[in-house]
Amino acid sequence: MRTFSGKRSTLALAIAAVTAMSSWIVVPQASAAGFIDDSTLTGGIYYWQRERDRKDVTDGDKYKTNLSHSTWNANLDFQSGYAADMFGIDVAAFTAIEMAESSESAHPNEIAFSSRNKAYDEDYSGDKSGISLYKAAAKFKYGPTWARAGYIQPTGQTLLAPHWSFMPGTYQGAEAGANFDYGDSGALSFSYMWTNEYKAPWHIEMDDFYQNDKKTKVDYLHSLAPNMILKTTSCWRPRWPGSGVYRPVFAKASYKFDVAGTPLNTTISSTAPAIRSATAAPTIFRRHRMAEALTLATRCRRAGPASGRYLG
To answer: Is the pTM of this model over 0.70?
Structure first.
């Protein structure tokens, strides 16, 4: 059994707090019924047959096998309702069954599981069948606030994103946020996420975070992001992800106005990967860089016999 210490105790305390809070409240039976009545159980069975060749320009432009495998996938996803309209759980798992695979196929094929269970143990030697628990989280909501802790995928605005295969990758951590709607004036939301482990969908076990040398451990990653929307006109989305070494900042603003009777959407974004320790940073990040982009988009409206149609 995996034990948790140090930084991991923060996550354990967060999960324990959510669980313990439910025991302090006497919930009428009618209120608890929402946990089951509003729950959903979904799933599916899928078959993959992939054959892909790529040209090797280093070997006389010969086409060589890149992927050649047949794989079954299946998943079950349970999402509870909320007991007392506050507490719930989400649990989901998926399986991969390798039927056949060419010895020349690339590994991992990212549909089945890698023969190595952890990302930083990867040796690209093969694939295998298996089962992965990709979601197991306690969830909470109260008024405009919400929170989740456990095995999760980000749901708020964040720069921490999972890989995707048949199913998404999984973070071990916690996320919380709030949403405020001010009617015609606009809306404001924000979220914070903290994580100390991760697994891609083709790895079965969680692994720590490391710098590019694959030896220097990064204790945790976290991200804070507000999102302000002025309805029909503009929005502002700064984000601050980071770890013990990196402090990148991302900001995005957009504004919409009419030009000759058609809406013109403008967006400007800015990123700056700030380095806390230059000596520990990978080479590509050793210089402070600022990237900015301006995007303009418009949609034209053409009147037709029956209705208007948007082009562009």
So the answer is: no
